[in-house]
């Protein structure tokens, strides 16, 4: 296993969408989260954070629970400005 000596990190204030941007742009599946003292508070997993982003679509009432395509559309639009 290869570890990065100075990985890119999120903070406790980083939004879900910003964390997904960081992970997408850096092409990595995990993102450490540091607290205000610089200690590691958590490690985000791309699957967990994608699930959280999809849940946000439901909370924003963009989609109903049965329309996953709608959620992916709004998620892509929020992340990348993609309009399909």
Describe it.
The model has no long low-confidence stretch (mean pLDDT 80). The protein is 45% helix and 15% strand. The chain has helices at residues 16-26, 46-59, 68-80; strands spanning 10-11, 30-34, 40-45. The protein has a 3-stranded mixed sheet. The protein has one domain (10-80): CBS-domain (Roll). The chain is elongated. It has 84 residues and is of the alpha+beta class. Residues 3-65 form the CBS domain. It comes from Citrus sinensis (Sweet orange). This is CBS domain-containing protein. InterPro entries: CBS_dom, CBS_dom_sf. Pfam families: CBS.
Brief synopsis:
This protein has 84 residues and is an alpha+beta fold. The chain is 45% helix and 15% strand.
Q: According to CATH, what is the class?
A: Alpha Beta
Cα-atom Rg, whole angstroms?
14 Å
First and last CA, distance: 38 Å
Output the helix-strand order. EHEEHH
- The CATH H-level superfamily is CBS-domain
Q: What count of structural domains? A: 1
What are the segments in which pLDDT stays under 50 over at least 5 consecutive residues?
none
CATH-derived topology:
CBS-domain
- Secondary structure class reads alpha+beta
Oligomer: single chain
Helix content: 40-55%
Q: Would you report the number of β strands?
A: 3
Main beta sheet strand tally, sense and closure: 3 strands, mixed
What CATH architecture label applies?
A: Roll
Strand order of the largest sheet: 1-2-3
Task: Give the percentage of residues in beta strands.
Answer: 15-25%
SS field, number of helical segments? 3
What form results from the Cα inertia axes? elongated
Q: Mean pLDDT across all residues, rounded?
A: 80
């Amino acid at each position: 296993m290869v570890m990065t000596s100075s990985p890119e990190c999120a903070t406790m204030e980083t939004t879900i969408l910003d964390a997904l941007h960081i992970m997408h742009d850096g092409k990595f599946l995990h993102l450490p989260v540091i607290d205000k003292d610089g200690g590691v508070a958590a490690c985000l997993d791309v699957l967990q954070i994608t699930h959280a982003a999809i849940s946000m679509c439901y909370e924003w009432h963009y989609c109903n629970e049965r329309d996953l395509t709608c959620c992916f559309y709004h998620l892509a639009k929020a992340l990348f400005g993609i309009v399909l």
